[in-house]
Specification:
By secondary structure, this protein is mainly beta. The protein is built from 6 helices and 37 strands. It folds into 5 domains: 204 residues, 3-Layer(aba) Sandwich (Rossmann fold); 76 residues; 70 residues, Immunoglobulins (Immunoglobulin-like); 75 residues, Sandwich (Immunoglobulin-like); 74 residues, Immunoglobulins (Immunoglobulin-like), CATH 2.60.40.
């Protein structure tokens, strides 16, 4: 049961975004709750060569040792215990006195060993439960996006729809662009600022700004569209004709009391403010000044990916105008854009390098529809007749005399339906299975029998007694050639043909032998007298 108390959650994924504190409707303990990324990728280095985990540990301990008088602190970590566990999320420090929280945190930081996955969604759900009747902020610190088949951005959007005023502050530590967009989506959904951090100083600065907006009272700006729905807005406070402050509706701002002119609007993905609105405001010397601004909702863009008429998972989308990149967005997001005609590009897989031209118009949502060629998942397993030995190497699919796909021996490949030749390109056992028909069934598995004979190499001493098993070198043809090592005493498949084998060490004559389909032979390497 979500309390009526207005919650302000500071999301703590190493994406410490500065988010404002919202006044609770009833008195309740105020909490600062940190969610810390201790997944395996935290062993990676930042651009300055410092390990992410080392930077995060030191900065975070310094941050929590600061002044949080009147607040309770809590700390949760994920990805620090088990590899591949999407519920590896632990409340390390329950809500309590700040001084005690710092002591408990220190012990954890000395022992933490980044290990596992990045279950952000699950950690946020647990955090909401941990808050109980409290209000406050969640600070999320993360060096990567969700890796557990869940979408924390959609979770935060759902909380907003349920009037849970979740203030998730996010700082991304050394993120690539796709991960950065995913993490920024969380802060955008929560109505907070997002901060990038590529060094210890930037991480500390992001946390400092979050604290200023989350703990200190200030000016609060609320943007609403024509239908009364809240929108994230940004702009400037001007005084005496000059810009004084950059502000957004994602935080509380400490500004000098006085008269200002606020100019703000909704930012589009192009980086522009859409039809910004101007309003005169007065900021009081004490307490919270809340300013509501009616703004114009920009047009929006949403991507859809269709395969045989059904909507499927898509890929990152980039919009171009006049050959230049205008903006990009995640395929599952609806994003604001400036009006105009764009070329939208996306490449979900090798067979689908797609481009769609569409016009974005004021007051409308534009659905950009990508129609994918129908690919299927095809898995192949080539095995030797007579023994069932699996040729554990990658294969190739050919069509009309040209290679179309590399096929991973374990993971297969996504391919277009059709008729192919499957090639095993091993030096000793080259084989082509012709006429493999891949249908339109979404997932298919093929087991191909490779006609072979089998050979076993034995070592003999010069007196005819058996020698210890050891390696030997086998090559196609009768005169050496490119060889592969094998172990004597073991049975191996070969396609029919002529081969030669030479000993690993010592004096041994080269032995030429023939392989016939369905026949097993032993080849003897005898040490010279």
């Amino acid at each position: 049961m979500i309390p009526k108390t207005v919650r302000t959650v500071v999301a703590g994924v190493l994406l410490l975004c500065c988010m404002p504190i919202v006044q609770a409707e009833e008195e309740a303990p105020q909490g600062i709750y940190i969610i810390f990324d201790a997944s395996g990728s935290m062993w990676q280095k930042l651009q300055d060569g410092a390990f992410k985990i080392a930077v995060a540990k030191q900065v975070l301990q310094d941050f929590m040792a600061g002044d949080f008088e009147g607040y309770e602190l809590a700390f949760r970590a994920y990805g620090h215990r088990n590899k591949g566990d999407c519920r590896d999320s632990e409340l390390i420090v329950p809500f309590g006195d700040p001084a005690g929280a710092v002591q408990q945190l220190q012990g954890f930081m000395e022992e933490v060993n980044p290990t596992g996955k990045t279950p952000i969604h699950y950690s946020l759900v647990q955090a909401l439960n941990d808050f109980g009747e409290r209000s406050g902020n969640i600070i999320l610190i993360s060096d990567g996006e969700e890796t557990c088949d869940a979408d924390p951005c959609e979770l935060v959007k759902l909380w907003q729809k349920k009037n849970v005023n979740l203030k998730v502050h996010v700082v991304g530590l050394g993120l690539q662009e796709n991960a950065r967009l995913a993490m920024k989506c969380i802060s955008d959904a929560a109505g907070t600022e997002y901060y990038d951090a590529a060094s210890a100083s930037e991480l500390a600065d992001g946390l400092k700004k979050i604290k200023e907006k989350a703990v200190l009272a200030a000016l609060v700006i609320v943007g609403r569209d024509e239908a009364g729905e809240k929108l994230r807005i940004e702009g400037t406070l001007r005084q005496e004709g000059a810009d004084r402050y950059q502000v957004t509706s994602n935080g509380r701002y400490r500004v000098e009391a006085g008269e200002y002119v606020l100019q703000a609007g909704v930012a589009t993905r192009n980086g522009n403010l859409y039809q910004p609105v101007t309003k005169e405001i007065s900021v009081a010397e004490v307490g919270e000044t809340v300013v509501e601004l009616d703004v114009v909702r920009p047009p929006s863009v949403k991507a859809k990916f269709l395969q045989q008429g059904k909507e499927v998972r898509g890929a990152h989308v980039t919009a171009y105008q006049n050959g230049e990149e205008a903006f990009s967005f995640r395929w599952m997001d609806e994003t604001f854009a400036d009006p105009g005609t764009y070329e939208f590009r996306s490449k979900p897989n090798a067979e689908n390098d797609l481009s769609v031209t569409a016009t974005v118009e004021h007051g409308k949502r534009t659905d950009v529809v990508f129609n994918l060629l129908h690919t299927v998942q095809a898995n192949f397993k080539m095995v030797a007749t007579g023994s069932g030995i699996w040729f554990r190497e990658n294969y190739e699919l050919w069509q009309d005399g040209a290679k179309k796909y590399n096929v991973h021996v374990h993971n297969g490949a996504r391919v277009l339906p059709g008729t192919y030749d499957l090639r095993l390109t091993n030096t000793l056992t080259p084989y082509v299975a012709k006429g493999i028909v891949v249908t339109e069934t979404p997932e298919q598995s093929f087991e191909i029998a490779v006609p072979v004979g089998h050979f076993t190499v034995r070592y003999q001493n010069s007196d005819g007694t058996l020698a210890a098993d050891k390696r030997c070198f086998v090559a196609p043809g009768a005169d050496g050639g490119r060889s592969q090592y094998k172990n004597s005493g073991q049975k191996y498949p070969l396609v029919p043909g002529t081969y030669n084998v030479v000993g690993w060490r010592g004096e041994y004559d080269r032995v030429v032998f023939e392989i016939q389909e369905g026949k097993d032979i032993e080849v003897t390497l005898r040490e010279k007298p």
